[in-house]
Structures are given as C-alpha cells and as structure tokens.
Amino acid sequence: MENLLQNLLSAEALAKNFDESRPSFNAQEALDEAHRCLYCYDAPCIKACPTGINIPSFIKKIASGNLKGSATTIMEANPVGASCSRVCPTEELCEGACVLNHVTKPIMIGDLQRFATDWSIKNEKVLFKAGEKNGKKIAIVGSGPAGLSSARELGLLGYDVTIFESKAEAGGLDTHGIVPFRLPKDISLWEVKQVADLGVKIHTNTEVGKDVSAADLMSDYDAVILAAGMSKVPMLGIEGEELSGIYDAIDLVEEAKNERYTTAFIGKRVAVIGAGNTAIDGATTAVRLGAENVKILYRRTEAEMSAYDFEYEFAKQEGVEFRWLVAPKRLIGDENGRIRQMECVRMKLQSAGSDGRARPVQIEGSEFLMDVDIVVKAIGQTRHQQLIDAFGLEHHGGVVKVDSETFLTSHPKVYAAGDVVFGKGIGEAMVVTAAQQGKETAYAVHQQLKETETAHV
Ligand code: SF4
Asked: How far apart are the C-alpha atoms of 248 and 132, rounded to whole Å?
C-alpha cells in the first residue's frame, strides 16, 4: 500500500495502479495444475457451472497442449468465458464443487480457463464460424453478457443479427462496469470481436428510443431481445446531495476502465454507500486513485451484504474499512460547496420484510458525524423504465416480466434476458448467469421461429 501511495503523483502515475492485479499461470503452472485434474466421470464441476462448460475436457486439452481446442470448449459453452475466468465467484461454483476439495485443494479452474482463453486472445484466434444464413432477422438491444451470448448463438444458427448499443464500445458490464485491475477492457472487446466475426452487426452509439424506435425494431425484425442491463445508481435521497464531491460508483469505474484517472481522490477520505459488488469496485477504485482512507457504509450487516466473499476479502486486503449498521443521513459542506462531513445514523435490524431480507431501522438519537471529502454512491441501480415502456412490456417495478423458460415478455415478438429480468423475476446478478440466459433466450427465439415457419407451410 505504501508503494501505491508513493506513486500517486499524477494521472499518468495512477494508471499503473489499474494494471491487472492477479498474475496469469505460466505454461508450466498451467500444465502442473491440469495434470492434477482427475477428469471425473459425471463431473460435479460441470453441473456447478451455470453455462455447463465441459471443464474436464478443456483441462485435458491444456494438458495435451491443444490450447485452441481448450479455448473453443470454454467459449462454445460460454460466449464470455474469458471474462468469466476473471470475475466468476468460482469458489461458489465450479471450484466449490470440485471433488478435490475433500482431499487437497480444488483445481484452479478459473485460472486454467484464463490461461486457455488468454492464449487465444494473444494469438488472435477466431474460434467460430457463422451458420448458413436462414433469412431471418433478429434485433438485440444491449451488448453485455446476455445480449452478446444471444447474438453469438443466433449467429451460429444462421440468423442475421443486429445489436443496438447505446455506448461507444460494446461489451456492457464487462467492458465498462468491472474494475480494470480485475477485468481489463481488452478481454471483453475480444469476446465482442468473436461475435462480430460471425457477421453480427453491432451499431454502437445507437440508443433505442432515440436513434431508432422500439416500434421500428418490432416491425422490421422477426424477433427482438431486450438485454439492456441496468441504468444509473439512484440518488441517496438525503440533504446535501447537491454538494460537490459525490460520485456514482458505476461512472467512477467506467472512467477508470477508459483510462481516465481523476486525481481528485488523492489523499482524500472517501465513504462508499452500499455493500454490493459495485460498492467494492467503487471502494477499491478509490484506493487505487490514491484515497487516504476508504470506508464502506452499509445499513445492514456483513451477513446481508450482497458482494461475493472473494470481493469482500479483496477489499479488506486493499485496506477498505467496513462500517456495518450505519446509514448516511445528511451531507455537510464547506463555504465552497464541497463535502466536509456526513451525518450518519446507527441502524438495527428487524424481522424480514416481504423480500425475505432483514429490515434496517434507525436507532433514534444515535446520529454522529463522520469527516469525509468524497462520497461514492453504490446503492443498486435503476431500471431502464423508458425503454421498457417504449416496447410496452409488462414489468414489476422495472423488472421485465418473462416466461421463466422461454424468456418471452408480454409482447409475442419481444424476449428479455440478463439484468433487465433480474430481481423480482428470475436469474441471478452474475455475468455467467446472464450469459446462460442469453443462450437460452436465443434457443427459445429459434424454437418459436421454427414453429411459426412450420405452421405457415
Ligand atoms: Fe477435475 Fe475437479 Fe472437475 Fe473432477 S471435479 S473433473 S477433479 S476439476
């Protein structure tokens, strides 16, 4: 940490702090690890992977030196398998299920997956070929893990696929929303290229509802898949939010991902509000931007925080402090309109509400002041309400309602996958589950269009 702070002299110097933090396996380490695998029959690691990657198969290919084959096995099952090798909570998924947990230590599946996909990236391998064109057109809104996975599967099946992406670069969360020291942008852009190489058209800087209408998509395409992810972090809803020194965690990470490093955090005291993975990303970014002290404030306890265990451990290693059962109440500024203090209140938990989570309530008279220069908001994200309304879809508080098997929305031509259906609907907020939903949505679209065609013959 000392070295980190000594280096913080300029934005250029800050850039060094954002290099990927975990080293990759070298060839010998990868071989040694691959040779430890038992290549289990009915392997539990495959079942534990939401995308069903044939893990013993890709590991065996590493052991035999067939790295392209290994990467193909990974990417076939998971179109964002290179990103997932870095961001999946593997100890809860494949590695958690590995039979070697009972004997020694699990196979480092994530690291092996990274080794094989990194080899493909370095060697610029194109792993897939588009299927023969079937004359049908599909529009996909959003190019994150769900949209990209749908596009890849539909491209392989011969569909003419067009993705509409509002940002300047495709890849969604993986390109813009996960800290670069865990997931460099190049990895995600390689996955985007694998899909574009199938002939999938990706219109970036194109916002549906503004540059192209939802009605046009519904009339011009055989099916539409809504995979737009989530929107911004909402306001905290407390006094003083107009002061300067307030950041949105998503924007902060996106700036770092685009190699724009603010010097505003150097030597500052930072409070991050929220305790999900985005809060951890916001807090660790603040550390690497040179903050003197970073605290995460959460109104519930460690037991209820939604960040993965490995993210939590990582944040602690980075020196991030945690304050449980504390909520912000008011921001206090100086004469220049900059935050100087935050009034906080202590909380206690009451029995669970309708969502099954313990309810935090304020403890009267427990207010106290905390000295802070910067506040980073990371209290969840809002929904793309306007977009959902433009398609006229039924939803539950901004969570699009879909059939749990076919991902069909209330509109017979519109499907939805990924974070737009996460929450009160189905699915889990993991990149890997979004990828699987994207695949399943593509198969459902294919099935429905085949049935429609048969009915017309
Ligand atoms: Fe290899 Fe572990 Fe999977 Fe068995 S469970 S195939 S040992 S990674």
From this structure: 45
